[in-house]
Target: UDP-3-O-acylglucosamine N-acyltransferase
Amino acid sequence: MKFTAEQIAGILEGEVIGNPNAEVFKLSKIEEGTIGSLTFLSNPKYQNFIYSTEASVTIVNKTFEPEQAISTTLIKVEDAYQAFSKLLEYYNQVKLMKSGIEQPSVLSENVTYGTDLYLGSFCYVGKNVKIGNNVKIYPNTFIGDNVVIGDNCVFFAGVRVYSETEIGNNCVIHSGTIVGSDGFGFAPHEDGTYSKIPQIGNVILEDNVEVGSCTTIDRATMGSTIIRKGVKLDNQIQIAHNVEIGENTVIASQTGIAGSTKIGKNCMIGGQVGIVGHITIGNNVRIQAQSGIGKSIGDGEVVQGTPAFNYGDFSKSYVHFRNLPKIVSDIDDLKKKIK
Model:
């Protein structure tokens, strides 16, 4: 797929300086630009590369004025970084613009779907499923019975969505993710064995949620596991039954959240964080990577460590942790002098 500088400038509302018919068909870093590639310059540290890049078209800020001869065609915009991001989003939309039902695939009884559905080969859609408009479901995906899917959703290859799950508009679920598997519920017996507690709830993903690859979101024992609007989940995250995650919270990879924990709005949770069950984490909380959360956290707190405590206190204490061998040695010397 090829685009001219003029076409790109039209998308970005930019001004072409150079050849408006310059064609591009791929993206590149400015230092790795080749003929036919599109790149951008926003960081002044990379400005020297604009004089040597072979990229056919370069997006720059309106304020940029070359100090030497350049061969690349420029597109001037208000903010080159934001413009390039917008272009990536547009490119992704064009790339994902598929429609039609490929075979073999299975649509069970009473399935309804809107316009521009794409259903890849080897997909299975269960009974009574409702699918909105412009939904893209890539090959080898399983959709269980009674699932509801809103408009403009994308499920990449190999997604598994169990029965009764409800998914809002504009959601993206990446490959290998499982939504709605059983929560980890077992009742112990005196003889050391366990019996399974049926998990009869569901999972709700509200609008504008994105879930990374190989993440697991368990269905509730009763009621719902809820992922609120705008939540962004990284790859390889475990969310247990009856967890609720507030609007616009972002969580990095390898985090595990135990059952019935409630997380507030606009939180940022680093990678490899472990969170126990049945606690509440407030709004606007920041949890640093590899922290262990064993108790509730109030609004606006920043924590780190295992068990986690105030980030400022942790940073001060860490200086002492690193110097602990020397501190012990100094104390031993003082003891000898006192004796």
Summary: The longest helix spans residues 80-95. Residues 100-314 form a domain with the UDP N-Acetylglucosamine Acyltransferase; domain 1 fold (CATH 2.160.10.10). The chain has two domains: 3-95, 100-314.
